[in-house]
Structures
1.
Amino acid sequence: NIFTCLLPLIKPSSNSCSDVPFKCLISVLLHVQSYAKPYLPLILENLSIVLDMITTVSVKPPFIHYLYESFCLSLRLLHIHIPTTFHQLSSPLVSRIFQYMERDVHNSYDYLIQLLSVVILRDCPFEINQLKLIYSSMQTITFWDIDSDRVYSSALLLSAFFKASSHFVLTDKDCQNFITIFSKLSQNSRFDGVVFNILKAMVIYLPWSSNNPFPSIIFDFIFQRLTCHKKPKFISGFCDFIY
């Protein structure tokens, strides 16, 4: 079948390293959807093998991009069509993701964060110690004092944590920490394009109520920034947030 023909082609070598097989795989998966169900575990296994291989083989950025896009799509389809196997197949991947993040091979950190977000959003294996550690580190301003692209991917991970297990991981102290992070990042125009992603995650996924209202001090930070230092991206982010 087409998958058994495609999967050997995605593996890089010193002579061949093309993103075309990944594009074909993505296209086929999008078209066949549920018909790919019997092959999804095999596809994920082969994608994991490729992840290991790129630590020793030189590959170009498009190869990396479509590798992770294939991975994310396969995980989403696995959760839709074989949800009972998702935890079993994705939990080992989480531990490996942290190993890859430490190496940051081919500057893949942002892709790995997004891949981790896809897993956590559907099954948050919070018993894995590395997950607890990264969630704790996300509550420090130093974690977010990075380039704006990484803030975007980290905000996706934060959204995944909140949506998957806010009742389990969130405390009043956590909430205050994230408010502090938003307030500090919002004062730096370098993060104007992404800072509201953090706030959106808090608003959409945290269990606000009359007994636990959304902190109005957030708007003090926003209006202070709008008053003293207007920038188009910040204004656009705010308008998108309130609508």
2.
Amino acid sequence: MDPKEINRVALVGSGTMGPGIAQTFARAGLEVFLVDIRQEILDKGMERIGENLDVFIELEVIKPGEKEAILGRIQPTTDMEFACRQADYFMEAVQEVLERKQQVHRQADQWCRPEVIFTTNASHMRMDPLAIATKRPDRFVGTHWVNPPHIMQLVEVVRGPSASEASIQTVYQFLKRVGKAPVICKDSLSYINNYIQSALGRAALDLLEQGVATAEDIDRAVNTGFGFRLPVVGPLAFFDMAGLDNVRDSWEYVNRMGGNLGPLPQFIQDLVDQGHWGLKTGRGIYSYSEKETRGLANERNRQLIRMLKTLKRI
């Protein structure tokens, strides 16, 4: 299916994530059938969407007149069959319990048209046990929307073993159409975002348990240090900017002093041995043009200064 032809979405689950996802689709002009088993859950979900939109109006993200139009494109319903029969795109966002998710997809598979792509919202689950609950495993794609879903740009598109490339690309382009910043990843435990976030969380808890710093200072170090830089420079791009030769030297020093970083990844050692040290040599984890080699650091600094000014920290 062409992502431009998706106009109606059946979205099952009006709990933690569903309302924000429904809001995103509706704001992009789509008709959304928001499904849950009880009317009171739907009522709470719609109330939350209204509150979200009030904040958008307050911060001038949308105009006051847009609120009613967005809400008008969301139809809450307990009739899942009705929603599925209308849908050009099916999404499930219920609690991460395998059997519950399988049940939803098994039911929806009976009612949705054969060409409709199925997606799940999951933060760590593998895709094939869900895909095989349907008769369309080639059109079953995992997605991980980051909380709060109506604000955060990232959606991970999870490539399950049975998903076709056409289905992956349809979901990817559709998510771009509704204003998200999708990335594609293999079907691995915790995907990208939560894998890195979990590593950060473990490190922060280790520091707290060891008494290295207070909880407040650990959080402040992240917020005002590398965490502040992350919107501009990701961790791999930062390694290139720091110099892979310096990364290697620091890595080896920490390990010699009793740290537990483990061995330096072999592909990094190979790049260093070949003289590919990152931005300063024109190639590292990334490759850089001569113009990028000269200008990337300055552009990074400009963006960081703009962020500091916006937050009134400078």
